[in-house]
Design brief:
single chain; 0% strand; binds MU-OXO-diiron
C-alpha cells in the first residue's frame, strides 16, 4: 500500500468535498438557468463538471495507491440566492477554502515524506490558482455590471470561463 491511513482518510474527505462542490455549482447553475441567464448557467455547469473531475482524480489516486475508497455523506447544496453576486461570492469563498484544504493535504504528504502524493497534489495546487483567478474575474464582472446582468452574459460570450487551457492538464 502506497498511501498512509491518515492521507487515505483525508483524501476520502476531499473526494466528498469535491462532489459537494459539484452539486453546489449545479445548484447555482440551475438558479441562473431559472433567471434566464444562459451564459452564467453554462459557466457553472462547466464548473460542476470540473469539480466532478477533481473528485474522480482523488478517488483514482486512492485506488491506484492501494487504499480504500469511502465516499462520505454529502451535505445538500444551498439552493436559493439573493443575487448573482451572492452566488459568485459563495463560489469564490469555496475556492479559497479548497485551496486551504489542498495545502493541508500537501502538509500531510510533506510530513510523511510521501513524494508520490506530493507529486500528485502539485497539480491541484496549480489548479487552485486558476480556479481562484477565474472566480475572482467573474465576481468583479458581476459587481461592475450591477443590476444589468446582461453585461455579464455578454462578457462570458466573448470570454468563455473557465479558461480552456485547463483541459490539457487533465490526466
Ligand atoms: Fe475542486 Fe474548484 O476546486
Amino acid at each position: 500500500m502506497l498511501i498512509s491511513k491518515e492521507l487515505e482518510q483525508a483524501i476520502n474527505e476531499q473526494v466528498g468535498r469535491e462532489f459537494g462542490a459539484s452539486m453546489q455549482y449545479i445548484s447555482i447553475a440551475a438558479y441562473f438557468d431559472s433567471e434566464d441567464l444562459p451564459q452564467l448557467a453554462a459557466f457553472f455547469y462547466r464548473q460542476a463538471e470540473e469539480e466532478q473531475m477533481h473528485a474522480m482524480k482523488f478517488l483514482h489516486y486512492i485506488t491506484e495507491t492501494g487504499g480504500h475508497v469511502r465516499i462520505p455523506a454529502i451535505e445538500a447544496p444551498k439552493d436559493s440566492f439573493e443575487s448573482a453576486e451572492e452566488a459568485v461570492q459563495l463560489s469564490l469563498a469555496w475556492e479559497e477554502e479548497v485551496t486551504r484544504q489542498i495545502n493541508a493535504l500537501m502538509d500531510i504528504a510533506v510530513r510523511e515524506n510521501d513524494y508520490l502524493a506530493q507529486d500528485f497534489l502539485r497539480w491541484f495546487v496549480a489548479e487552485q490558482l486558476e480556479e481562484i483567478a477565474t472566480m475572482s474575474t467573474l465576481l468583479r464582472t458581476v459587481q461592475r455590471a450591477g443590476d444589468n446582468l446582461l453585461l455579464v452574459e455578454d462578457f462570458l460570450t466573448r470570454n468563455p470561463l473557465p479558461a480552456e487551457e485547463n483541459e490539457g492538464a487533465e490526466t
